[in-house]
Design a protein that fits this description.
The complex is a heterodimer of chains A (254) and B (237). Chain A is 33% helix and 13% strand. Chain A has helices at residues 37-50, 122-129, 151-161, 168-172, 179-190, 199-212, 223-227, 235-249, and strands at 6-14, 23-31, 73-74, 77-78, 100-104, 113-115, 118-119. In chain A, strand 1 and strand 2 (23-31) form a beta hairpin. By secondary structure, chain B is mostly helical. Chain B has one domain (12-97, 113-231): Up-down Bundle (3 helical TM bundles of succinate and fumarate reductases), CATH 1.20.1300.10. Chain B is built from ten helices and no strands. Chain B starts with 10 loop residues before the first helix and ends in a 6-residue tail after the last helix. Classes of the chains: A alpha+beta (254), B mainly alpha (237). At the A-B interface, helix 6, helix 7 and helix 8 of A face helix 1, helix 2, helix 4 and helix 9 of B. Bound molecules: protoporphyrin IX containing FE, iron/sulfur cluster (SF4) and FE2/S2 (inorganic) cluster.
């Protein structure tokens, strides 16, 4: 791979605040192929600051693919062109010299834009608060082996637990549906013995909370799973649909 | 435990107020409608067996349960289609509202299909065609002259009615176009129906992905074979 400087043109969504209309603004910048996508934006922001211009607001925290903050739609794909890769783990070597890159925030009614590329994802927190938990007795630490869990169950639950709540599934869905996220949470917790107590109420409450937040419904496009940086499979939605139907059919009370 | 602002969760109103619940209603009513469409195509293929077979079938069907069977069937199908459309309108409006501002550069979709993107459109075309088709062959309003014909046994001559109609290229084009719209609807929806019920699961996923396109292709070919065979002169009076 070459180390040569790349010249790129960015078209970035700029929006002063929640009520501003917003539009794409173009910037020319240079980048090194080894830079991460966010480092490329950092450099551009330094340039903007030195010209006394407003830097581009974007979310980020861990920059190692685990916090789920670095939300942006790059060339029409949440987290950009690479599968199973968050924006912070995307490198400029995935682009070519002379490329034009479009950068936009997640677009969903349930994720209002705060500024530029930053959105408010607290709708996910409220969905989690409605049922994404298990209750455990307090007191001394329980024996690690007190509740045996089969290897297959543990592996499956762990795979669903990999969801980092980034919202790429919502951003990618033509209906802005949160089914993959909610499915991952419900599947994760309902696979565990500890998750059985609140199992039916969890499915009903989390679905009701997701609907209250204004996310769309699933029409089985499958876009969410292909956008997910943690490769949560569509199977999560199958589990959610079954958990919901099961809770409805059995009268719902735990 | 639930926040006070959350909608009713249980029972019929809870179902229809919830996105997953309304999808379940759509999948179950869709299942009935698909079942109707498939058997309707299969039995109508008796057009190729000649007037005796088709007219006798139609005559017997209308006589089942003293003539009540067809009316019970029609009432049930009407209830299903009304529920299906109510859920479809509700969810489509909701899905549009869930993304008030489009992406300026557009979404680059990876997995979806045209069939999935145009479900509401193909559904509406199907509905318009359904009204036309019922006025045409069930009510005899569109071409009354072909409708009121009896065969030598004194039965409604369904065979002659259909064959005479399909000699008209405008009618054939209408049926072919409508069936293409229906095929798109079925190609996504039959697979989607399994997914909505949580059944496109595990190792069945790839198999179930093929069911929609398979059912759609069979229904499309079966239905248009009748119209096309008549206008091509393979079936004549
Ligand atoms: C012969 C008539 C029809 C048949 C056999 C049929 C069948 C189906 C089936 C099986 C589904 C799948 C449900 C699911 O995804 O779980 C479906 C979905 C749908 N139908 Fe129909 N339908 C018919 C007529 C209509 C009409 C008249 C409309 C609208 C006016 C309509 C609009 C829709 C929509 C919007 C969906 C939802 C797509 C989605 O959520 O993915 N359908 N249909
Ligand atoms: S399911 Fe995937 S895309 Fe959706 S929030 Fe979780 S990690 Fe992000
Ligand atoms: S900044 Fe934490 S996942 Fe990208």
């Amino acid at each position: 791979m070459s180390d040569e400087t790349m010249r790129i043109t960015l078209h970035v969504w700029r929006q002063k605040g929640p009520n501003d209309r917003g539009s794409l603004q173009s910037y020319k910048t240079e980048a090194n192929p080894h830079m991460s996508f966010l480092e490329m934006l950092d450099v551009l922001n330094e340039q903007l600051l030195s010209k006394n211009e407003d830097p581009i607001a974007f979310d980020h925290d861990c920059r190692e693919g685990i916090c789920g903050m670095c939300s942006m739609v790059i060339n029409g794909r949440p987290h950009g062109p690479r599968n199973a890769t968050t924006t912070c783990q995307l490198h400029m070597r995935s682009f070519k010299d002379g490329d034009e890159i479009y950068i936009e925030p997640w677009q969903a009614k349930a994720f209002p834009i705060i500024k530029d590329l930053m959105v408010d994802r607290s709708a996910f927190d409220r969905v989690i608060a409605s049922g994404g938990y298990i209750s455990v007795g307090t007191g001394g630490a329980p024996d690690a082996n007190a509740i045996p869990i089969g290897k297959k169950q543990a592996d499956e639950a762990f795979d669903y637990a990999a969801c980092i709540g980034c919202g790429a599934c919502v951003a990618a869905c033509p209906n802005a549906s949160a089914m993959l996220f909610v499915g991952a949470k419900v599947a994760h917790l309902s696979k565990f013995p500890q998750g059985q107590v609140e199992r039916k109420g969890r499915a009903l409450n989390m679905v009701a909370a997701m609907d209250t937040e204004g996310f769309g419904a699933c029409t089985n496009h499958g876009e969410c799973a292909s956008a997910c940086p943690k490769e949560i499979p569509l199977e999560a939605i199958m589990v959610l649909n079954r958990e919901y139907a099961r809770a409805q059919l059995s009268g719902g009370e735990d | 435990m639930s926040a006070p602002s959350q909608p009713a969760q249980r029972g019929i109103s809870g179902l229809m107020n919830s996105t997953i619940g309304a999808k379940i209603a759509m999948a179950l009513t869709g299942f009935v409608l698909v079942g109707f469409v498939v058997q309707h195509m299969v039995f109508n293929l008796q057009l190729f067996a000649g007037p005796e077979a088709l007219n006798a079938y139609a005559y017997n069907l209308k006589g089942l349960l003293g003539g009540n069977f067809v009316w019970m069937g029609r009432a049930f199908l009407l209830a299903c289609i009304v529920l299906h459309i109510m859920a479809a309108m509700r969810l489509s409006a909701r899905n549009r509202a869930a993304r008030p501002n489009r992406y300026a550069a557009g979404l680059k979709t990876q997995t979806t299909s045209y069939a999935a993107k145009f479900m509401l459109g193909t559904g509406i075309v199907t509905l318009l065609f359904l009204v036309y088709h019922i006025l045409h062959f069930t009510g005899g309003v569109i071409e009354p002259d072909n409708f009121h014909i009896l065969d030598s046994e004194g039965r409604h001559d369904v065979w002659r009615m259909v064959v005479t109609s399909f000699k008209n290229p405008v009618v054939v084009v209408t049926y072919v176009v409508a069936n293409i719209a229906l095929a798109f609807h079925l190609s996504h929806s039959v697979t989607s129906m399994f997914a909505t019920l949580g059944l496109q699961s595990g190792s069945y996923r790839p198999l179930i992905a093929k069911i929609g396109p398979a059912v759609a292709t069979i229904v499309l070919l079966g239905n248009i074979a009748m119209a096309v065979s008549v206008i091509a002169g393979l079936i004549h009076i």
